[in-house]
Write a structure and sequence with these properties.
Length: about 250
């Protein structure tokens, strides 16, 4: 996947891209379709690893392209890889990261809005983490996550069916704090268990773990999610066991 440089990601001024398509008409007159993309990328996108993701504006949307690979250590890189981490207590799934092409693309609205009703998440990727890897919900193979808990590495990730992904609080970069985790398929960002505006656990979250407040990336209030601050199975913090509050897009 083609990478972008960091200057492209940190867009601080209005971007205007105009594409002209010329179509011959029956009366020999020329018509012009003009597609204009204006605005700027949300400041939170500067947190995404530019070696694993490419992020840009397209019309009124934001396109996130990812390799699907995590930028941190894990046993799932396999022995011999520079990012391999020995984790003898992990019940490994049958494969390692380099065996698959986990690249994917998510297109979301530049200005996501809450929908009239929530939408349940499904199996597979429900978001993209700042590390480049996928975010999954609280299910595993149409069942509870318990059956796969032994295969999760130190940062709540494993492989199945083919890409590396997180179910739990990704401790490789966030643990009991307010750091950005990633973006979900409905265009809303998800943060750690604490709220940046108060430095404490938010008490006004809805059923999806979301609320409206300021973040470290915006001085105006905006809707966003938090990792659920309730222990699952008395030992884990699930990233997102709820439903989308916005309208989700597919991650392909």
């Amino acid at each position: 996947m083609k990478k972008i440089n960091k200057a492209r990601l940190a867009v601080l001024s209005t971007i205007t891209m105009t594409v002209f398509a010329f179509i011959a008409c029956s009366n020999d007159e020329e018509s012009i379709d003009e597609v204009t993309s204006t605005g700027e990328l949300h400041a939170a996108f500067a947190e995404f690893d530019t070696d694993e993701t490419s992020i840009y504006l397209s019309g009124s949307n934001v396109v996130i392209e990812t390799t699907g690979n995590p930028n941190h250590t894990t046993v799932y890189w396999g022995e011999g890889n520079a990012l391999y981490k020995e984790e003898p207590n992990v019940d490994l799934t049958p494969s390692i990261i380099p065996n698959y092409d986990a690249s994917a693309t998510l297109t979301v609205s530049q200005n996501p809005q809450k929908a009239s009703s929530p939408t349940s998440t499904s199996l597979g990727a429900i978001g993209i983490a700042i590390s480049g890897a996928a975010i999954f919900n609280d299910q595993e193979g149409n069942g509870a996550l318990d059956q796969a808990a032994a295969s999760l590495d130190y940062t709540g990730g494993h492989i199945g069916p083919q890409e590396y992904h997180y179910h739990l609080e990704p401790k490789a970069w966030t643990e009991d704090d307010d750091k950005l985790v990633g973006i979900l398929a409905d265009g809303f960002f998800i943060y750690g268990r604490k709220c940046n505006s108060t430095g404490a656990y938010p008490t006004d979250l809805d059923a999806s773990g979301g609320h409206t407040s300021i973040t470290q990336h915006n001085t105006e209030t905006e809707y966003h999610y938090h990792i659920e601050n309730e222990l699952y199975n008395n030992q884990y913090y699930l990233i997102f066991p709820g439903a989308y509050q916005g309208t989700p897009s597919s991650i392909n």
